[in-house]
Amino acid sequence: MPEIWIAFAEAAGIPVLKRTTREEPDYDKLMRWRLGILKEHGLGLKEIQDTIAKIDPLPGAREFLDKLREHTQVIILSDTFEQFGMPLMKKLGWPTLFCNTLEVAENGEIIGYRMRCPQSKLTTVRALQSAGFVTIAAGDSYNDLDMIRASKAGFLFKSTDAIKADNPDLPAYEAYDELLAAIKRAMEE
After folding, report:
1. pLDDT of 168 strictly over 90
2. So what's the pLDDT on residue 67?
3. What are the φ/ψ torsions at residue 68 (nearest 5 degrees)?
4. How many beta carbons lie within 10 A of that of residue 145, not counting itself?
5. Which end of the chain is less packed: N or C, by CB atoms within 10 Å?
């Protein structure tokens, strides 16, 4: 999916909200900063959800997930929030999404958030592995690196030049067909 915060920054006319985990590795710091900006501008969940309703998956994303699910189970691990993610999952054919939850006041102000668990992506990968699952992971941000490295195989996908340069040992792909082929090869090994 396109980055929700970037789309919302553009819709709200607040360019500083374009900062994501692709630039800021400390998620808690990033979210506290975002919530402060929302409060400063009097914006809440409704305004963000109005933007989310207009977001469509990246071209080829749904087809990629459909093809991948022909070969294996798929779980999307995200640091997004249920209130953001569920409308988008409908557009992707309802893949399984593990994410976090926003704390929202009655007036719609986002007053906080609850992480599903500490280091949610890495913790989830390790939990799946402890249950006997083999994991293969792909991601684009700093907060994906531990999950990628803990998996049997891991890939950067549509990542930044800085993240790719900092992690030259991780295969990096830009196209869905390349990523699908890499995942299939990893499954065969």
Report:
1. yes
2. 96
3. -65, -40
4. 21
5. C
CATH of the domain at 106: 3.40.50.1000
Tell me whether residue 108 is in a domain: yes
Domain contains 133: yes
- For position 146, what pLDDT does the model report? 96
* Model pLDDT for residues 78-106, shown as the tens digit of each residue: 989 999 999 999 999 999 999 999 999 99
Domain presence at residue 163? yes
Region 142-151: what's the mean pLDDT? 96
For residue 151, tell me if it sits in a domain: yes
Chain center to CA of 118 = 16
